[in-house]
Design brief:
Family: Belongs to the UPF0270 family.
Number of strands: 3
Largest sheet: 3 strands, antiparallel
Strand content: 15-25%
Protein name: YheU family protein
Oligomer: single chain
Pfam families: UPF0270
Number of helices: 3
Shape: globular
Distance between the termini: 15 Å
Organism: Vreelandella olivaria
Helix content: 40-55%
Structural class: alpha+beta
């Protein structure tokens, strides 16, 4: 069984999805004080569009019981890092 599963955004309650996306915005260092007045709400709306276009994924780690939003590049890199750790016996 795989340690990680992809979670479809539509399966999450709206509050949970918004919280995950807000954490992603903060972690990525997005400027939430933009001049459009949208701030965090604008970024969350944009990220929802990216999820719909499959540019982002929501991944759940069954072992650590953590859920994260990732870009596809982050996911691919993360997968390689995990595989390397497993080969070295770190996991």
């Amino acid at each position: 069984m795989s340690r990680f599963i992809e979670v479809p955004a539509r399966m999450l309650p709206p509050e949970t999805l918004n919280a995950l996306l807000e954490a992603f915005v903060t972690r990525q260092g997005y400027d939430t004080t933009d001049t459009t007045g949208e701030g965090m709400h604008g970024w969350v709306a944009e990220l929802k569009k990216q999820l719909e276009r499959n540019e982002l994924i929501i991944a759940h780690d069954l072992e650590l019981e953590m859920t994260e939003v990732m870009t596809l590049a982050q996911w691919r890199s993360f997968g390689r890092d995990i595989a390397d750790d497993e080969e070295e016996g770190d996991i």
